[in-house]
Amino acid sequence: MLYRLDFVVEYDSSMQQQGLLGVWAEEAEAALGAKHAGVVKDLWKVVGERKVLAIVDVETPDDLDRILFDLPIMQKMGQYVQVDVKSLRRYEDFAIDVKERLKR
Protein backbone atom coordinates (compact mmCIF):
# COMPACT_ATOMS: atom_id res chain seq x y z
CA MET A 1 0.00 0.00 0.00
CA LEU A 2 1.27 3.45 -0.85
CA TYR A 3 1.10 6.31 1.61
CA ARG A 4 2.05 9.95 1.46
CA LEU A 5 3.58 11.20 4.70
CA ASP A 6 3.97 14.89 5.50
CA PHE A 7 6.31 15.47 8.42
CA VAL A 8 6.37 18.87 10.13
CA VAL A 9 9.20 19.14 12.64
CA GLU A 10 9.11 21.65 15.47
CA TYR A 11 11.38 21.98 18.48
CA ASP A 12 11.17 23.66 21.84
CA SER A 13 13.15 26.66 23.00
CA SER A 14 15.60 24.52 25.00
CA MET A 15 16.89 22.77 21.85
CA GLN A 16 19.42 24.67 19.83
CA GLN A 17 19.68 24.38 16.07
CA GLN A 18 22.73 22.09 16.30
CA GLY A 19 20.72 19.63 18.38
CA LEU A 20 17.92 19.62 15.85
CA LEU A 21 20.39 19.15 13.00
CA GLY A 22 21.99 16.22 14.83
CA VAL A 23 18.65 14.42 15.17
CA TRP A 24 17.77 15.30 11.58
CA ALA A 25 21.10 13.89 10.32
CA GLU A 26 20.35 10.59 12.06
CA GLU A 27 16.85 10.59 10.60
CA ALA A 28 18.21 11.36 7.11
CA GLU A 29 20.51 8.34 7.29
CA ALA A 30 17.58 6.08 8.26
CA ALA A 31 15.30 7.59 5.58
CA LEU A 32 17.86 7.21 2.81
CA GLY A 33 18.51 3.62 3.94
CA ALA A 34 14.78 2.91 3.71
CA LYS A 35 14.76 4.49 0.25
CA HIS A 36 17.64 2.26 -0.83
CA ALA A 37 15.71 -0.75 0.55
CA GLY A 38 12.61 0.22 -1.47
CA VAL A 39 10.25 0.99 1.43
CA VAL A 40 10.51 4.72 0.78
CA LYS A 41 9.75 5.44 -2.85
CA ASP A 42 10.79 9.08 -2.74
CA LEU A 43 11.55 11.93 -0.36
CA TRP A 44 11.40 15.70 -0.61
CA LYS A 45 12.35 18.52 1.75
CA VAL A 46 10.15 21.60 1.46
CA VAL A 47 12.34 24.65 0.91
CA GLY A 48 12.34 27.13 3.77
CA GLU A 49 10.27 24.93 6.09
CA ARG A 50 10.98 22.15 8.56
CA LYS A 51 8.82 19.86 6.44
CA VAL A 52 9.59 16.58 4.67
CA LEU A 53 7.32 14.70 2.28
CA ALA A 54 7.67 10.96 1.70
CA ILE A 55 5.97 8.33 -0.41
CA VAL A 56 6.26 4.91 1.24
CA ASP A 57 5.19 1.42 0.21
CA VAL A 58 4.29 -0.93 3.08
CA GLU A 59 2.14 -4.06 3.32
CA THR A 60 -0.30 -2.90 6.00
CA PRO A 61 -1.28 0.18 8.01
CA ASP A 62 0.06 -1.67 11.06
CA ASP A 63 3.50 -1.85 9.43
CA LEU A 64 3.44 1.88 8.78
CA ASP A 65 2.48 2.61 12.37
CA ARG A 66 5.37 0.45 13.64
CA ILE A 67 7.84 2.12 11.28
CA LEU A 68 6.74 5.58 12.43
CA PHE A 69 7.24 4.65 16.08
CA ASP A 70 10.77 3.44 15.31
CA LEU A 71 12.01 6.48 13.38
CA PRO A 72 14.95 8.19 15.12
CA ILE A 73 13.24 11.59 15.00
CA MET A 74 10.09 10.15 16.58
CA GLN A 75 12.03 8.41 19.34
CA LYS A 76 14.06 11.50 20.20
CA MET A 77 11.54 14.31 19.72
CA GLY A 78 8.24 12.77 18.64
CA GLN A 79 6.20 15.23 20.67
CA TYR A 80 7.42 17.94 18.26
CA VAL A 81 6.77 16.03 15.02
CA GLN A 82 3.38 16.13 13.28
CA VAL A 83 2.81 13.43 10.66
CA ASP A 84 -0.08 13.70 8.24
CA VAL A 85 -0.74 10.33 6.57
CA LYS A 86 -2.72 9.85 3.37
CA SER A 87 -3.41 6.50 1.70
CA LEU A 88 -2.77 6.64 -2.04
CA ARG A 89 -4.44 4.93 -4.94
CA ARG A 90 -2.70 4.45 -8.28
CA TYR A 91 -4.20 6.89 -10.77
CA GLU A 92 -4.26 4.19 -13.46
CA ASP A 93 -6.56 2.07 -11.25
CA PHE A 94 -8.79 5.07 -10.60
CA ALA A 95 -9.02 5.80 -14.34
CA ILE A 96 -10.09 2.20 -15.05
CA ASP A 97 -12.72 2.43 -12.31
CA VAL A 98 -14.08 5.67 -13.77
CA LYS A 99 -14.36 4.15 -17.24
CA GLU A 100 -16.17 1.09 -15.82
CA ARG A 101 -18.61 3.32 -13.99
CA LEU A 102 -19.42 5.16 -17.20
CA LYS A 103 -20.68 1.87 -18.67
CA ARG A 104 -23.38 1.48 -15.98
TrEMBL record:
One Pfam assignment: MIase
Transcription in keyword set: no
Superkingdom of the organism of origin: Bacteria
Keywords associated with the record: Isomerase
Record carries keyword Glycoprotein: no
Occurrences of domain NERD (ranges): 44-104
InterPro entries: Dimeric_a/b-barrel, MLI_dom, NERD
Any one GO MF annotation of this record: isomerase activity
Protein name per UniProt: Muconolactone D-isomerase
Taxonomic source organism: Epibacterium ulvae
